[in-house]
């Protein structure tokens, strides 16, 4: 096959390298390659009109909101994202302080400022703290299964439920309090689904769950937006490296391709774009989201990937975690409020009820985080929701989302006259064609080895790597 269409590369010495995907992984790879004098012929093919991928900051409500990545988790010296952000001067004094970097959070979400129940009453924060202590102690105990060849039960969710059943046997409170405890625990399960990017913790493998390394440091944000980080990386690249609006259709590899502008030279890889343009290369680094791989696995590589890589892509989990921003003219929460928890009293982690999504999707919403006010007349809450309910939310109109969450807030606060939010903004990562979800997790039946297997370069016959796949 001979390459055709617009040719972005100029002929010359040195290998031609393509990076497919302009998210943080692709940009990081490009930045490192550009520092090496051997890789002067480098291009990054990005499917959309912007770089950053799932790092996406938007100017809304009179300020900057994070539609994608929100926090730096574990902002300390062992965290490469923190190091880059500090290097570029993108963090505030508190985040950079040694005191903040030494705080041990255990990787767990902090306690809410206020907790509302679906009956319209406030939940005791002491009771919330008691259930959070139980839940996160069990999460910490999952590390005991690290490197176990086989676990019973196989999933994090089943393990947690088994231990919770044992604890409930010793509860001495009245039935209503026991029910409320279970409802609080259900909320914490939903929080963990957001953290893990999964529909259910029953889908997350128990044995490798403890592989996640928790770094010290209190989670921090970017005052001017997370996208400032990817913008700075792009600015550090030579200006002809980025090629936007270039969705890739098929990667033809292990072949022998020619280009009219380079007579006599052959290339083992040809990247074919949806618009018909073709880019020959010696090496390709593929950094597209795993959700995209799962959707296009049958057509994205020619010849098809080896069986072990196909199986790895199929086995690794990839789920959706979305945000819903609500803007109010006046806050209904207290000035020092940072996190509002919502507890549905008719839910329990020990029950496998599956109501119709249109009737109960909002019950998967874990609550809201209060964003710093942008100005006097703009007060914003950011809600998080994961799983199939999150994907269903994407199918609704903004008016339907706004109406549903207005009803939820009026119900849980016990105030039927609570003013409706004046605007809504949400992410839709599952329906985004080049992401198809938010992030990966080690699913039941897979292991961390599948991640490593997927990252091994091809071909594997020792004749020189043509391309490498990065799943995330």
UniProtKB/TrEMBL annotation:
Signal peptide: none annotated. It comes from Odocoileus virginianus (White-tailed deer). This is Peroxisomal N(1)-acetyl-spermine/spermidine oxidase isoform X3. It comes from the Eukaryota. Residues 24-459 form the Amine oxidase domain. It is found in: Cytoplasm. Its main location: cytoplasm. Belongs to the flavin monoamine oxidase family. Keywords: Cytoplasm, FAD, Flavoprotein, Oxidoreductase. PANTHER family: FLAVIN MONOAMINE OXIDASE (PTHR10742), PEROXISOMAL N(1)-ACETYL-SPERMINE_SPERMIDINE OXIDASE (PTHR10742:SF405). InterPro entries: Amino_oxidase, FAD/NAD-bd_sf, Flavin_monoamine_oxidase. The lineage of its organism: Eukaryota, Metazoa, Chordata, Craniata, Vertebrata. Its cofactor is FAD. Residues 452-472 are annotated as: Disordered.
């Amino acid at each position: 096959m001979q390459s055709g269409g617009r040719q972005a590369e100029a002929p010359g010495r040195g290998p031609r390298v393509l990076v497919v995907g302009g998210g943080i992984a692709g940009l990081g790879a490009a930045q490192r390659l550009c520092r090496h004098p051997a890789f002067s012929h480098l291009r990054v093919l990005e499917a959309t009109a912007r770089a950053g991928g799932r790092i996406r900051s938007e100017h809304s409500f009179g300020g900057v909101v994070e539609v994608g990545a929100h926090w730096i988790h574990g902002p300390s010296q062992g965290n490469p994202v923190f190091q880059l952000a500090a290097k570029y001067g993108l963090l505030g004094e508190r985040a950079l302080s040694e005191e903040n970097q030494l705080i041990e959070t255990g990787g767990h979400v902090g306690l809410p400022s206020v907790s509302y129940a679906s009956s319209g009453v406030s939940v005791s924060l002491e009771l919330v703290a008691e259930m959070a202590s139980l839940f996160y102690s069990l999460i910490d105990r999952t590390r005991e299964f690290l490197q176990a060849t086989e676990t019973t039960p196989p999933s994090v969710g089943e393990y947690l439920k088994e231990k919770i059943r044992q604890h409930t046997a010793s509860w001495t409170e009245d039935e209503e309090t026991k029910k409320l405890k279970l409802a609080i625990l259900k909320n914490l399960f939903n929080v963990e689904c957001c953290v893990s990017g999964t529909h259910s913790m029953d889908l997350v493998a128990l044995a490798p769950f403890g592989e996640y390394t928790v770094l010290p440091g209190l989670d921090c944000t970017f005052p001017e937006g997370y996208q400032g980080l990817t913008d700075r990386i792009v600015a550090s690249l030579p200006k002809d490296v980025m090629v936007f609006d270039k969705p890739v259709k098929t990667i033809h590899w292990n072949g022998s391709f020619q280009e009219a502008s380079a007579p006599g030279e052959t290339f083992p890889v040809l990247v074919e774009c949806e618009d018909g343009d073709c880019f020959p290369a010696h090496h390709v680094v593929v950094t597209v989201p795993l959700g995209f791989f799962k959707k296009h696995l049958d057509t994205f590589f020619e010849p098809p990937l080896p069986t072990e890589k196909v199986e790895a892509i199929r086995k690794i989990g990839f789920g959706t975690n979305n945000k819903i921003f609500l803007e109010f003219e006046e806050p209904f929460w207290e000035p020092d409020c940072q996190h509002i928890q919502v507890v549905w009293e008719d839910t329990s982690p020990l029950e496998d009820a599956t109501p119709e999504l249109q009737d109960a999707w909002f019950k998967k919403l874990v609550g809201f985080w209060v964003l710093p006010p942008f100005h006097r007349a703009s007060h914003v809450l950011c809600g998080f929701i994961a799983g199939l309910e999150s994907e269903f939310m994407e199918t609704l109109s903004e008016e339907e989302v706004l109406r549903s969450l207005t009803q939820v807030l009026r119900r849980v606060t016990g105030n039927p006259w609570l003013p409706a939010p004046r605007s809504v903004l949400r992410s839709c990562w599952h329906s985004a064609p080049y992401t198809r979800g938010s992030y990966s997790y080690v699913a039941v039946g897979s292991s961390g080895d599948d991640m490593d297997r997927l990252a091994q370069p091809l071909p594997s016959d020792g004749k020189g790597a043509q391309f490498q796949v990065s799943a995330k």
